[in-house]
Recover the amino acids of this structure.
């Protein structure tokens, strides 16, 4: 049995005054589910100090260990600030920053080199889904982004249905289960028996209302939660739903 993981992604939200939300979130850590929150770089150190029992992470890292990369943060720096993990390949990074699979793989390797766990994101656009290319796009992203030696004790994969963001279209539980099954099959092809240990998270719009159905679907091992992770009032019920499964 893979233990469920519910990870929050605060994106470009939050200041020091927001850290109080982590207190109630941290109280759910011992309830049978792993809980983590990727906060902005500016809050990693303060968050790690405030809630040492909660998995605090970064939202991205640079693929280089150091150098002339103004405005970037290395995996070593994120870890030194207190991060335990990082997200790589998020759809917003791929789209807004033109990150390729090669770059995402290099970031995952850098994170692992410095002892960080990794949540690796993959997902397809609306045009790709409507063209019938959803599975081929997602599995190709996974193959291109997955670092060598990927193992379940440090790697999770998050499936993001990019096509559902702001379109008014929502994936069904069957849609989610089908894609997660395809991701699991590709992991088996790439990593063999180790694939059974890798958690595959759902990275769509998870709420208290749909968390139990989505996280309870076949091959869904938890969730990567965006906006609903910003407050304990919205995030804790998602954690509770996962813990009850």
């Amino acid at each position: 049995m893979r233990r469920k993981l519910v990870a929050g992604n605060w994106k470009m939200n939050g200041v020091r005054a927001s850290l109080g939300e982590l207190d109630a979130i941290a109280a759910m850590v011992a309830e049978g589910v792993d809980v983590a929150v990727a906060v902005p770089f500016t809050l990693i150190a303060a968050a790690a100090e405030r809630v040492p029992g909660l998995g605090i992470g970064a939202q991205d890292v640079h693929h280089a260990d150091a150098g002339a990369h103004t405005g970037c943060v290395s995996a070593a720096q994120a870890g030194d600030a207190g991060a335990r993990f990082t997200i790589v390949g998020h759809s917003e990074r791929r789209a807004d920053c033109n990150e390729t699979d090669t770059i995402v793989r290099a970031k995952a390797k850098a994170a692992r080199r410095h002892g960080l766990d990794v949540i690796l994101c993959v997902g397809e656009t609306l045009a790709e889904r409507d063209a019938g290319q959803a599975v081929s796009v997602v599995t190709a992203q996974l193959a291109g982004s997955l670092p060598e030696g990927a193992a379940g004790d440090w790697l999770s994969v998050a499936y993001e249905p990019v096509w559902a963001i702001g379109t008014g279209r929502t994936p069904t539980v069957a849609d989610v289960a089908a894609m997660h099954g395809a991701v699991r099959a590709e992991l088996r092809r790439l990593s063999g028996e180790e694939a059974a240990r890798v958690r595959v998270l759902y990275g769509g719009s998870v709420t208290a209302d749909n968390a139990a159905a989505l996280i309870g679907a076949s091959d869904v091992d938890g969730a990567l939660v965006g906006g609903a992770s910003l407050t304990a009032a919205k995030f804790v019920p998602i954690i509770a739903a996962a813990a009850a499964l």
User: Anything to note?
Assistant: The chain has one domain: 5-243. The longest strand covers residues 117-122.
